[in-house]
Amino acid sequence: MGVTTMNKTAFKKKFLDLLTEKFAISVEDASLFEIYTTLGTLIRSSYAKDWRHTWSNYDHEQQKQVYYFSIEFLPGRMMKSNLLNMGWLDTVQAALADLGIQLDDVVAQEPDMALGNGGLGRLASCFMDSIASEGLPGNGNGIRYKYGLFKQKFIDGYQVELPNEWLARGNLWEVRRESKSVDVYFNGYVRLNKLDDGTIVPVHEDPTIVRAVPYDTGMVGFRNGTVNTLRLWDAEIPLSEESLYRSIEQRRAIQDLTSVLYPDDSNEEGRRLRLMQEYFFVSAGVQSILRHFKTKQQKMQNLDEFVAIHINDTHPAMCVAEFMRLLLDEEKMSWERAWNLTVKVMSYTNHTIMSEALEKWSVEMLQSMQPRIYQIIEEIDRRFVEEMTGVVDWELIQRTRIISDGLVHMAHLAIIGSHSTNGVAKLHSDLLKTVVLHDFYRLYPDRFNNKTNGIAERRWLQLANPSLSTVLDKTIGQTWRYEANDLHLLMNYSEDKAVHKQLQQAKQANKERLAAFILQETGVRINEHAIFDVQIKRLHAYKRQLLNLLHILTLYFEIKEEGFTDIQPRVFIFGAKAAPSYHYAKSIIKVINEVGKMIQEDPEVSDKLSIVFLEDYSVSLAEVIIPAADVSEQISLASKEASGTSNMKLMLNGAITIATLDGANIEIRDAVGDENIVIFGLTESQVYDYYEQANYHAYSYYEALPKLKRVVDSFVDGTIANIYQEGKEIFDSLLTYNDEFFVLRDYEAYVNAQKEIEKAYQNQERWLKMSLINVANAGRFSADYTVMKYAEDIWQIEAKPKSRKA
Ligand code: 26Y
Q: Any idea which residues bear N6-(pyridoxal phosphate)lysine here (predicted)?
């Protein structure tokens, strides 16, 4: 792209001209926000041509494209990533510095785009970056929520949720495309009109019509001229129906549709609104794909050679039925032909084995909201049962059919209606085959496959960790910046003391940066030479932040009551949001905060231990925490974390992982070897053995281990102030309700593993080598490779040869 040739002088001139044009102001008088707006406008207009070319080339070359449907996208900030990918970063940084401006102050003006809760949404955004960077024809399709994921505050140690008005000052990156709007129908009823020739024409009577307006954002590839599209839909009142929606309530109901992101990653809440959101972006997206396809006058008959639709978790599973609806009702295709195309076009990723997250909708709700879609699902179900009858046993059919017990099983719809179902790490994909979706595996063994998750390594290393990046450039050259596996070259320096020293200095610089941030945000001064021990992820019982807390309390009592003094100082850093309705998770936040306070106020321990629970965990916050981490906490109960991706980000930044054999932790162990990771706890098969034999007795661990008893009792015996109800709730979850996630069972192994971490850290020579080996082997988790595997195995799409300007 022309932009890569931009030099400092030319940039300065353009920038200053645009600043004058937009704000009639000099750079000395401009506010940071004016500077941000000017720079953003310049960036966008500079990739606009490439954006247009990318589009038209795909059409012109009749390339097959994938559309990644996801109810969450979590890109974070985009300015720096765009600069990096355009090849502008260094030039702009230097040019602004000449003008007395720090780029980092400018980029901080951008609000995080947080249209996601956690791993699923962040994965979608890492994929968008990698798809563009690999030059693959792929687009995102989702919802433009007016409010992003709630802003988290702690008041008296409790999580409080505030609205996140990310659009308040506008959004530089999006383009509203009024002309591409489509109508989405809800409610009403369907009359089947029989024509004279016997054909049946369904007519949707008395519908509520919502206008879906797309906002497109360019997804800039890494120095390859590719700019793909993330299309997010907003709900509006249709112009022609203005008069019908007169009352404030009716208008509000429509606007509410895209108002808030469902702030919950497991529990049930606002179910009806969520179902509406799902159909809304599914229908708008599928309609716009087919409409575009038709304008290019391609034949519907071989749609599958041009279009792939990816269903990211069950939320967009109605793609299957909506695609059928359009082919049947609009294109008048036969059922058989339409079904054949649908299965070839669709593919599905499962992201969780937690049964409460596998969506099921009541027949009444779906039928009343989507009468035609329900009819089609009913017919898919009927034909499925018919096809399987006599082939497999009746019970199996009952367990796998889409509609049963008054519920519509969305995962069943996604599996039956697609050609590929994948899990997100080896273990997870195996568990899908053997346990969670075993019945389906028996029916469709060839549809099941694994695609281990990956991360956008450019963001998580090049952007987030310039100190380490510089060391890498000096040591192994720059090819790792676009070929992540070249990080492996670092293995040649695994014993090199000089390189170790540089890695140590880079880590220290990042720790100081984080410490300064913590001081500024919380007023707490932490020991910059302590071990930085990090657990960052959604607050969930299965992720076991509680186990981490039990270990912290163990250290606390060892110092307070057993006189241990010889302990390596540690700062425990947490970042986590709890779903607003997830009471138990919120209690854990409260208790961690109170323990943090207790430690901080106690001079006997505060120089050895501290807890920093940072408010409002986000992509941007992660970018400051991760480079500074020494220890990566990946301690979910084995079998519960589908993959995890913070484990990959932390490893890439040289943190040592303490982990259970869960999700992608297993593949991290395989990559670095047993000596360079600390593994503990029950394995997945041991967990399943407990389930089978129903012989876990949490109480016996509490009784047998005095240290554990002391810690658990502290939740209810007044040791920790201000936690009356919360302490009791946690205590009961462990003992009265028999500890669903085996926290007490894994406690001793975890405490020992933590001792091993401490010992390894105290031998800095060993530690630095471990850290180096982690960085060197993190390349395989680049999402660049992951999306290439999706492209080859699932989507059957291809990149045109790259013109990367390295
Ligand atoms: C339907 C509703 C209850 C629901 C809402 C959000 C269900 C699930 C979710 C989100 C799930 C999610 O974020 N899963 C995570 O996906 C990551 C990317 O694959 C994995 O790394 C991570 O282990 C998994 O928990």
A: 649
Report whether 570 contacts 609 (CB < 8 A). Answer: yes
Q: Measured on CA atoms in the order 128, 646, 531, 557, is the torsion positive or negative? A: positive
DSSP secondary structure string for all residues of 768-787 = HHHHHHHHHT-GGGBHHHHH
Per-residue pLDDT at 554: 98
Non-local (6+) Cβ contacts of 120 within 8 A are 70, 72, 265, 312, 313, 351
Judge contact between 193 and 250, C-beta under 8 A. Answer: no
Do 371 and 324 touch, CB atoms closer than 8 A? no
Structural domains in the chain, sorted by start: 1-61+78-111 (no CATH), 62-77+112-449 (3.40.50.2000), 459-778 (3.40.50.2000)
Q: Which two tokens stand for residue 55?
A: 């589009």
Are 101 and 173 in contact by the 8 Å Cβ rule? The answer is no
User: How many Å apart are CA 539 and CA 67, to the nearest integer?
Assistant: 30
Which two tokens mark 554?
Answer: 């163990």
424 CB less than 6 Å from ligand 1?
yes
ipTM of this complex: 0.94
Contact 580, 161 (CB under 8 A): yes
Give the pLDDT confidence score for residue 6 in this predicted structure: 79
Q: What angle do CA 577, 583, 589 make, to 5 degrees?
A: 45
Provide the pLDDT for residue 1: 42
Both tokens assigned to 85 = 């990918």
Note whether 151 and 164 are within 8 A (CB): yes
Residue 127 CA to its chain's centroid (Å): 10
Q: Is 646 in the pocket of ligand 1 (CB under 6 A)?
A: no
- What are the CA-CA distances from residue 735 to residues 557, 738, 744 (Å)? 21, 5, 9
Tell me the C-alpha distance between 2 and 7, whole Å.
Answer: 11
- Output phi, psi for 186, to 5 deg: -130, 165
Which residues are marked as active site? 351, 537-538, 543, 645, 649
Q: How confident is the model at residue 2, as a pLDDT? A: 42
Give yes or no for a contact between 85 and 159, defined as CB atoms under 8 angstroms apart: no
Distance 639 CA to ligand 1 centre (A): 14
Query: 3-class DSSP state for residue 466?
Result: helix
Both tokens assigned to 290: 């087919």
Burial (CB count within 10 angstroms: exposed 0-12, middle 13-18, buried 19+), residue 231: buried
For each successive 10 residues of the chain (806 residues), what is the average pLDDT?
A: 70 97 96 98 97 95 96 98 97 97 98 97 98 98 97 98 96 97 96 87 93 98 97 92 70 88 66 93 98 82 94 98 97 96 98 87 96 98 98 97 98 98 98 96 98 98 98 98 97 98 98 98 97 98 98 98 94 97 96 98 96 98 98 98 98 98 98 98 98 98 98 97 96 98 98 98 98 98 98 95 53
Query: Ligand 1 test: best mutation among 352, 436, 540, 543, most atoms within 8 Å of CB?
Result: 352
> d(Cα 397, Cα 416) in Å, to the nearest integer?
12
For residue 482, count CB atoms less than 10 angstroms from its CB and return exposed for 0-12, middle for 13-18, buried for 19 or more. Answer: buried
Q: Cα of 350 to ligand 1 centre, how many Å?
A: 9
33 within 8 A of 79, measured Cβ to Cβ: no
Q: Is the CB of 359 under 6 A from ligand 1?
A: yes
Instruction: Give the phi and the psi of residue 87 in degrees, each rounded to 5.
Output: 85, 20
Give the position, in ligand 1's atom list, of the atom nearest the Cα of 121.
Answer: 13
Q: Which of 557, 507, 599 is nearest to 711 (CA)?
A: 557
Cβ atoms of 777 and 488 within 8 Å: the answer is yes
Give nearest CA residue, ligand 1 atom 5.
265
- Distance CA(70)–CA(355), nearest Å, equals 20
Ligand 1 within 6 A of CB of 641 = yes
The answer to whether residues 374 and 331 touch, using CB atoms and an 8 Å cutoff, is no
236 within 8 A of 176, measured Cβ to Cβ: no
Nearest residue to 705 via CA among 595, 554, 592: 554
